[in-house]
Amino acid sequence: MRDLRDVGGTPGGFGTFVFGLALAIAGGYLLMQQVDVHGGYWAWGDSGRGRSFGLTLIPLLLGVVILFANGSSMIGKLLTFGGVIVILLGVIMNMDIHFRTTSLFNTLMMLVLLMAGIGLIVRSARGPVRAGTSRTDDDA
């Protein structure tokens, strides 16, 4: 069994991995704190007039009625499951995501933390490079 310090099957790199993970988590957290998510109205067609959310409830409600009448009905299960999926997809598709106004310095710090963390995680999984060799020499 390999030692816990051997990240990704390569010797060493545990400290680099943990530090990279901490940087990536910090950068990702700070970046996500600058994002606002807003819901919108469900529009039927391209016109944007009217709301169609009620139509997506029909398969779900019909499936529930069928399942209460016959709990082993495959059509009832499909309608209920399909109705839930359509509602979840509709909610996700109608979200508006906006990046809040922030300074260039803060934005760069968030992105550098995130990218540096990902780079260190990848570096720790690749293992150390010996002096006088390249990574392609190790693969041979």
Task: Describe the model.
The protein is mainly alpha-helical. It folds into two domains: 10-34 and 100-128; 39-97. The chain has five helices and two strands; from the N terminus they run αβααβαα. The protein has a two-stranded antiparallel sheet. Helix 1 packs antiparallel against helix 4 (104-126) and helix 2 (53-69) packs antiparallel against helix 3 (74-93). The radius of gyration is 25 Å and the shape is elongated. The model has no long low-confidence stretch (mean pLDDT 82).
Helix content: 55-70%
Which sheet architecture does the biggest sheet show?
2 strands, antiparallel
Number of helices: 5
Number of strands: 2
Order of helices and strands: HEHHEHH
Gap from first CA to last CA = 25 Å
- Please, what is the average pLDDT? 82
Alpha-beta content class:
mainly alpha
List keywords for this structure.
60% helix; 2 strands; two-stranded antiparallel ribbon; 2 domains
Question: Topology of this protein?
Answer:
Layout: H1 14-32, E1 35-39, H2 53-69, H3 74-93, E2 95-99, H4 104-126, H5 135-139
Antiparallel strand pairs: 1-2
Helix pairs in contact: 1-4, 2-3
